[in-house]
Amino acid sequence: xxxxxxxxxxxxxxxxxxxxxxxxxxxxxxxxxxxxxxxxxxxxxxxxxxxxxxxxxxxxxxxxxxxxxxxxxxxxx
Amino acid sequence: xxxxxxxxxxxxxxxxxxxxxxxxxxxxxxxxxxxxxxxxxxxxxxxxxxxxxxxxxxxxxxxxxxxxxxxxxxxxxxxxxxxxxxxxxxxxxxxxxxxxxxxxxxxxxxxxxxxxxxxxxxxxxxxxxxxxxxxxxxxxxxxxxxxxxxxxxxxxxxxxxxxxxxxxxxxxxxxxxxxxxxxxxxxxxxxxxxxxxxxxxxxxxxxxxxxxxxxxxxxxxxxxxxxxxxxxxxxxxxxxxxxxxxxxxxxxxxxxxxxxxxxxxxxxxxxxxxxxxxxxxxxxxxxxxxxxxxxxxxxxxxxxxxxxxxxxxxxxxxxxxxxxxxxxxxxxxxxxxxxxxxxxxxxxxxxxxxxxxxxxxxxxxxxxxxxxxxxxxxxxxxxxxxxxxxxxxxxxxxxxxxxxxxxxxxxxxxxxxxxxxxxxxxxxxxxxxxxxxxxxxxxxxxxxxxxxxxxxxxxxxxxxxxxxxxxxxxxxxxxxxxxxxxxxxxxxxxxxxxxxxxxxx
Lengths: 77, 505
What we know:
The structure holds two protein chains of two kinds.
Chain A: E1 5-6, E2 11-12, H1 32-39, H2 41-59, H3 64-69
Chain B: E1 7-12, E2 14-18, H1 24-39, E3 44-45, E4 75-77, E5 83-87, E6 90-94, H2 101-125, E7 131-135, E8 148-155, H3 160-173, H4 175-178, E9 182-183, E10 194-195, E11 203-208, E12 215-219, E13 231-236, H5 245-263, H6 276-285, E14 292-294, E15 300-302, H7 303-321, H8 329-345, H9 355-370, H10 377-386, H11 407-413, H12 423-432, E16 437-441, E17 444-447, E18 455-458, H13 467-475, H14 480-486, H15 496-499
Parallel strand pairs in B: 3-16, 11-12
Antiparallel strand pairs in B: 1-6, 1-8, 2-7, 4-5, 5-6, 8-13, 9-10, 14-15, 16-17, 17-18
Helix pairs in contact in B: 1-2, 2-5, 2-11, 3-5, 3-6, 3-7, 5-7, 5-8, 7-8, 9-10, 12-13
């Protein structure tokens, strides 16, 4: 995982860990249906699910119950 | 053609503290002050022209009451033209005015980075064991909701009644591609394990002024923040905050096109829903997307079929009337068609762009792997962590969502305004003369030259004050005194470069 520092804050841009799916920019002449048929994102996504679940197991809050119970937001629009 | 669809998004973020207990107003203020302090950016907001209680329907007889304005709370205007403030009990970022939906995505992403930088900065100031964290979602799962509001510039002469009934069709059905997904239901809605939208359970009226109780699908707040003779600002409170850039692009892009369709009277009159309040919930509660919605003429269509109709009309509209989104229409129509085809044939493949499908995929996978029940704390934690703004905790960053804006552009948008709206003038002045600008809001800035009199510069035209119009002028001067002089009058009653639209626009 590469991290880059921006500005003076030590802020880390989210893109550095964002796992983008490899994408081919659709050509201007393709219709939406053709783009959809050509990206085959579904198969790739399925193959990645196991790895993804491993990662979720790692980053998920250890005490899910407390985490969820403490999340109370009052007074929103 | 309709007027250009200037647009923007305001997002209230969820906020929690760990290791210490303060009110959300205090933690939100700490968050924003930490950022503003590190930016040396403490320009206040000017409330003179705020009128949130004005109703687009004119006089109303029901028990509508105006939203509260909390002038004492932290309020900052940023050099990218955005507003960063405490709204009710949440930190909120309003993007600057944008000319294109793609720019809205860019500035919404910049807002996320501003929130992240704020968290990092404030948490460094806090003692060990104490932390403030934020979430880009719209519900706490316990019956409390907070908004992600869109704003679109529309022509004043458009009949508000017609606008409301037509745009409702889109608001009820667009959630199939811009819903952010939610575990469970709230606000007395029938129990479901998972639903398409974060917000749908909270809408109880078709049309109204409120934003915090009895929320209406179409909000009538009539506060254009620009010339009220010419414009309305449609304040849209019905949407979810999206983690997916494509979903934000589709949400703002398709809504801009449908609004243009309505403005030019090309919306199909028959495509009006009979029971929109019940239907926004039934669409959200059916992840199979087979529920039908009854139209006023008795016909029944699924949300997907209705969206296909709207897409077809917008495709024709753009061909005959031109592009109201200043260059994005082709991409919007292509993404729109693509996502509808995908939702129809193989919805699971939309997990690379539709938040509710991406979220559901990991929930299902996790439930199978660990044998947990659909409404368990783990499922709710995953739902919440999908929207977690902490990099190390955020699940949306890990599920393979396709991105459409580039990271260098996002980094620049954190501090630089869009060049093609009045946000350019606001942001550039703030960056150039922070010591002289004592307040700013959407349609004016207030300048202190050291005299006894403060000068207000009105900016009533969203498409004035652009780099093309004021770029040379700003580059040619060094001080605010020169700026005021160049405007023709130090009272600046009708400054042409900011007030008047371009000929023929």
